[in-house]
Design a protein that fits this description.
Layout (H helix, E strand, L loop, with lengths): L15 H20 L3 E2 L5 E3 H8 L4 H5 L3 E3 L5 E4 L4 H10 L9 E10 L11 E10 L4 H17 L7 E5 L3 H15 L8 H9 L10 H7 L18 H16 L4 E3 L11 E8 L9 E7 L3 H4 L7 E7 H10 L10 E6 L4 H11 L4 E4 L6 H10 L4 E5 L1 H5 L2 E6 L5 E5 L3 H9 L11
Parallel strand pairs: 1-5, 7-8, 12-13, 12-14
Antiparallel strand pairs: 2-4, 3-4, 5-6, 6-11, 7-9, 9-10, 10-11, 14-15, 15-16
Helix pairs in contact: 1-5, 5-9
Bound molecules: adenosine monophosphate.
Length: about 425
């Protein structure tokens, strides 16, 4: 019979085997974030549509083509969140967090939604981990955010990460740069696709976001006599230039590998100064970005707050985990499991024992009253490290049998000493935690 329902296009189920990798990655991330003294924030999965329309730019792909926009039963104009920074900024304002008068370090993790064309590493529901420092213009905050970004990847086992970095200046210096870029591209306008031609008119910086290989060649100076592309760094105002120099110097001091990417710009007005990204080429040209971030000194003001600077990033967890998978990564095994096997006569006390043991151990058993042989098979399949057998005679004598499923050896112990024996037997495998760095 054909299945009536499948997960909607662009979404997928994360099944238990795969989730072990996710949980490992999430738990490593939580450790790093806690050591950086960032605190978690959870915002709703949907918000007013306007929040995103205003902050992501009406002309952006996310707003024009990728938003899950809907009306609720009262006709409210809502959207599933396509990203996490605008909701965090909204919450920051709504709860007057700035009143505390110091900078706030926040992080979030959860699903985001964009109606893109699904492919490997690109989904309609995907997961991000992000962090923000709100309330400081100090270059040291940009550097801290980049260090945190890199240390998250390190905690996931990426040893070879280079951060691409650029400065996008201020809205004024960016507009000046946009004009230089437009003048540079004008002679080859006819070689650009329709989207890029429109962007050349509306917001020339966004032409640099193109994924089209022919356009990328053109921007790289191949196949034309355009001369080198103008660089944003050459259009920076004095303060942004000083900020940029301070960021680079501190990155060097921390030994964070980075390379300047002149094509890394953001076309929206609230982005300022530092912009950065990390890529993994194995994911394919359109979805190689593992994460990115930057300064957004104009965002909170755009949402109606008083001018408040901020800097942050978001990392695509789906892609991180895809890369880990490609590298053959397997998460460390969880704590060892115990399987309880009962006879017909010991089924009732077994239920009590299972509950008691579950206060300390990971315990599985067969909830159906099945034969001894069937339970033994289930124990073998369950991946348990050892079995606890409640034989009728032993139970009457106040004893149980512990069987080691790897070696096959077994011993009879008094019920009262069961926990101590299990502890001794499972040793280091008990409550095994993820090894720290
Ligand atoms: P962005 O907010 O577009 O800068 O995205 C930040 C990160 O989220 C990217 O670097 C990707 O790793 C991830 N990401 C963005 N869109 C998707 C998507 N549709 N599917 C999976 N990951 C995504």
């Amino acid at each position: 019979m054909a299945l009536k329902h499948q997960a909607p296009r662009g979404t997928r189920d994360l099944l238990p085997d795969e989730l072990e990798r996710w949980q490992w990655a999430e738990s490593r991330a939580r450790d790093v974030l806690a050591r950086y003294a960032y605190r978690e924030i959870r915002t709703p999965l949907f918000e007013d549509y306007e929040l995103f329309a205003r902050t992501s730019g009406e002309s952006s792909d996310v707003v024009q083509k990728e938003m899950y926009r809907f009306q609720d039963l009262k006709g409210r104009d809502l959207a599933l969140r396509p990203e996490g920074t605008a909701p965090v900024a909204r919450a920051y304002l709504e709860h007057a967090m700035g009143g505390a008068g110091r900078c706030h370090r926040l992080w979030y993790m959860g699903p985001m939604f964009r109606y893109g064309r699904p492919q490997k590493g690109r989904y309609r529901q995907f997961y991000q981990i992000g962090a923000e420092i709100i309330g400081t213009v100090a270059p040291a905050a940009d550097v801290e955010i980049i260090a945190l970004f890199v240390d998250l990847f390190e905690a996931w086992g990426f040893r070879d990460l280079t951060v691409a970095i650029n400065s996008v200046g201020t809205p004024q210096s960016r507009r000046a740069y946009g004009e230089r870029l437009r003048a540079w591209l004008e002679p080859v306008r006819h070689r650009l696709g329709a989207d890029s031609q429109a962007r050349l008119d509306s917001n020339p910086l966004r032409v640099l976001d193109t994924k089209d290989p022919a356009e990328l060649d053109l921007l790289a100076g191949k196949g034309g006599d355009l001369g080198p592309m103008p660089r944003m760094l050459d259009s920076l105002d004095e303060e942004s230039r000083a900020h940029w120099a301070a960021v680079l110097q501190a990155l060097d001091a921390l030994g964070i590998r980075h390379e300047i990417d002149h094509g890394l710009v953001r076309g929206l007005d609230y982005y300022t100064r530092t912009a950065f990204e990390a890529h993994d080429r194995s994911l394919g040209p359109g979805q190689s970005a593992l994460g990115g971030g930057g300064r957004y000194d104009g965002l909170i003001e755009a949402l109606g707050g008083s001018p408040t600077p901020g800097v942050g990033f978001s990392i695509g967890l789906d892609r991180v985990i895809l890369v880990l998978e490609q590298r053959g990564f397997a998460p460390p095994p969880g704590p060892a499991k115990v399987f309880v096997v009962a006879m017909d006569e010991t089924r009732a006390p077994a239920a009590v024992l299972v509950r008691e043991l579950r206060r300390e151990f990971v315990v599985d058993w067969d909830p159906e009253p099945r034969s001894f042989g069937a339970q033994m098979k289930a124990a073998g399949r369950s991946g348990a490290r050892c079995m606890v057998l409640l034989g009728e005679d032993e139970w009457k004598r106040g004893e149980v049998v512990i069987k080691d499923l790897a070696s096959g050896s077994q011993e009879t112990v008094p019920r009262a000493g069961l926990e101590a024996s299990l502890r001794a037997q499972l040793g280091g495998e008990l409550n095994r935690e993820i090894p720290s760095r």
